[in-house]
Amino acid sequence: MKVKILSTSDVHGYVLPTNYSRRDDHQDYGWLKAATVIQEVQQRATSDEIVITIENGDWIQGSAFASYLAQQPADQQALFTQLTRSIHYDAGVLGNHEFNYGLDYLRNCERRRNYPLLGANIQGGVAQGILDAPYTIVEEQGIKIAILGLTTAYVPVWERADHLTGLSFTSALTTAKRFVPQLRALADVVIVAYHGGFEADLETGQPTERLTGENEGSQLLADVPGIDALVTGHQHRQLAGVYQGIPTTQPGEKGGAVGEITLTLNQEKKVVDRSATLLTTATAQPDSALAALVAPIQEQVETWLDQPVGQLTGESLAVTDPMAARLCGHPYLRFINTVEMAAGQTDIAATALFNDEVRGLGEQVSLRQLLNSYPYANTLVVERVTGAELRAALERCASFFTVTDDGQVGVSPAFTTPKLALYNYDIYSGIEYHFDLTQPVGRRVTQLMYHGQPVEATQTLAIAMNQYRGNGGGDYPMFSPDKVCREVNVDMAELIRQYFVAQPVVIGRPQTNFTINLTAE
């Protein structure tokens, strides 16, 4: 007997094979392609094969499609689980981004499902109507298969408190240690589905990040006996293998792959062989019936995206060279900081060029351009910090860069491995600063001025930033919720749109408040 475990994770609302950069865009990913791959495996299953399918979180937020549905009535938001129920998922797990639009949106999206949502380490989830149980047991052909659901415990660090009403999160590791032995006594096969990733190298065991509790996958492999298969996500990595004897998958993002774990059981229902692989969706055709179900909404989304937002003049806000923008500044980044400062009533702000796909804004700004350039459902906070804390944050930013002996600049592995995290480099407005990349990491900020005067370690400054950074996200421990002095609980994309309403013609201006030195002075 064989048990095949299929998983999707971190689809982020990319139902169709498009990134929404234009109406005719086509990409080699999308949940509809993943659905085709899943259905093919399900249909090919022989009489001695059991197929288990798991949706592993970050499903209902991220794309323009999801942003549109978040503004629609509840019955339209339920389209997400109208899709998943159609291809027979056995269980779902919540990701951290499931909470970005609040619990009502989450409930609405999930209300048409015909499979349980699992969350053993989210207390209060059942009472709040967003979870069904900590685990489920599926019995097929006399085989009992337990699925334990876990979500990264770091959610409260990033998420607004009012989006987590009645909920608390505990360590995935601690929770698994409690539940896995119980499930071993109840089932023949124990699967852990974890919306989280790995904090250490899977081969060497060496830490790859600070041990904050965001990612506990390596500890699950090493310290929790009795797991037969581990399904992971969150880090957007594509990986599949058998690590410490446990087959493990992580299928990337946007439906680009489906994880597949195969367990072979003997007559005593014991696992005697195991393997893991990824099934690419690149060449799959989107399921036609599901595409027809989505088509009316998709047309509405495309029309919504093409609506005009505002007009630009002056310096171009189009981003053509992301690395140059990070090294030299850019009118687009200055503009986003200007919006933050206006909304937060400060004269200092920080923002990131989130990824290399951000293209900024054209002369005639559409909602499509706006959402593709600011794709996260971040709100805004203002924090009051000391000069020393600001300098520490800038040192973290300066550590983003590496410089080779021949003067070539690159990105530090700490921002690319194990997860690409270009969004953790910020550019500031309202202060003047200089990085000297020839200096050791931690001593690269050689000038820091505010209103023409050196910033003193003990003086306090108010800085506008998105709430992810304000909660310390991205390894910025100098920022924290207890330093928030003002909140603007409106998504940044909406704040940008409102800025254009107030100023329909915006003048692009160069960013000249910081410099970076690459070579010995």
Automatic annotation (TrEMBL):
<dbReference type="Pfam" id="PF02872">
    <property type="entry name" value="5_nucleotid_C"/>
</dbReference>
<keyword id="KW-0732">Signal</keyword>
<dbReference type="InterPro" id="IPR006146">
    <property type="entry name" value="5'-Nucleotdase_CS"/>
</dbReference>
<dbReference type="InterPro" id="IPR036907">
    <property type="entry name" value="5'-Nucleotdase_C_sf"/>
</dbReference>
<dbReference type="InterPro" id="IPR006179">
    <property type="entry name" value="5_nucleotidase/apyrase"/>
</dbReference>
<dbReference type="InterPro" id="IPR008334">
    <property type="entry name" value="5'-Nucleotdase_C"/>
</dbReference>
<keyword id="KW-0378">Hydrolase</keyword>
<comment type="similarity">
    <text>Belongs to the 5'-nucleotidase family.</text>
</comment>
<feature type="domain" description="5'-Nucleotidase C-terminal">
    <location>
        <begin position="330"/>
        <end position="480"/>
    </location>
</feature>
<dbReference type="InterPro" id="IPR029052">
    <property type="entry name" value="Metallo-depent_PP-like"/>
</dbReference>
<feature type="domain" description="Calcineurin-like phosphoesterase">
    <location>
        <begin position="4"/>
        <end position="237"/>
    </location>
</feature>
<dbReference type="InterPro" id="IPR004843">
    <property type="entry name" value="Calcineurin-like_PHP"/>
</dbReference>
<keyword id="KW-0547">Nucleotide-binding</keyword>
<dbReference type="Pfam" id="PF00149">
    <property type="entry name" value="Metallophos"/>
</dbReference>
<protein>
    <submittedName>
        <fullName>Bifunctional metallophosphatase/5'-nucleotidase</fullName>
    </submittedName>
</protein>
